[in-house]
Amino acid sequence: MESLNILFTGKDAVEVRREPAREVGRGDILIETQRSLISTGTEGIVLGRKFEEGTHWANWINKYPHYPGYCNAGTVLEAGPDVKDFKPGDRVVSRAAHGQRVVFDASSPRCAPIPDGVSDEAATWFGMACIVQIGVRRAEHRMGDSVVVIGLGLLGQLVTQYARLMGARHIIAVDTSQPRLDMALSHGATHVLKMGVEDARQSILDITDGEGADVVYDVTGFPAVFAPALGLARNFGTLLLLGDAGTPSEQRLTSDVVTRGVRVVGGHDCYPPQTPTAENRWTHRNMAALFFDYLLRGQMRVEDLITHRYAPADAPAAYHMLQTDRSGAMGVVFDWSQV
Q: Computed from CA positions of residues 219, 224, 230, 231, in that sequence, does the dihedral angle turn out positive or negative?
């Protein structure tokens, strides 16, 4: 059996190839992909090799071809003899790459069933939703928090919605793109600031009665944002880094950390446990189930964040658009029914 796959074959080099599908092992499932979502930030950094040597990015992308993508929704075609949780015909999400037919370990918490009522396109957001849940839990929110979200890409839009669910009093969205701010406003932001982060401090102080934000999210991945973002937090507030800079050596600490006690916290996809524990039940599979509950109840929305749909054969054009001007793009989906 063959699969049409999307590959990065080098810096700024995208190819679409037909290749043999991997053999299904005893504990694997074979998935016929229906939709997959581009992680625009991560995949853009990887494709353009926008990272320093010695970083985890360089350790990860150390050979080609690289198979991008980790937000896959599809239907089980075949299940190995040891698989208990899935059967042919089941709809599933997985952290598999962009490919027509993918094989995935059915025991991994990084795959989960898609409930009835959740579309394939909405389900592809589960990977992003899990990453943001990790950050939101690390922020240790309290009801009534004032929250600043810097960068309203895919993750920033989800941070806005989770912050609303967590009971934030103010959700202040900061970005230079008006369409992105409009999206944030329609999904729970209480204030939007169309400006760079370096210009946002006084407006945020005015909104928060001179205190600053309880939690500031830097969801940009741009190292220059780090220093001014520290100044937006209140005394003993938190700066949560959810955008992973490819050049961390360019991030600069300020006196806010020492003199005002601002706490710097990271959030990363590798944190969740493989299996639930008494102290932490939030595996990727459990986080996906929670996200789907929110979608089914109408407490979160993602389908209206999708701006572009491409046939897999048009992947080079999709990535070229994202690398040259993604200001008008939000959710970018590959439609595998067009293979």
A: negative
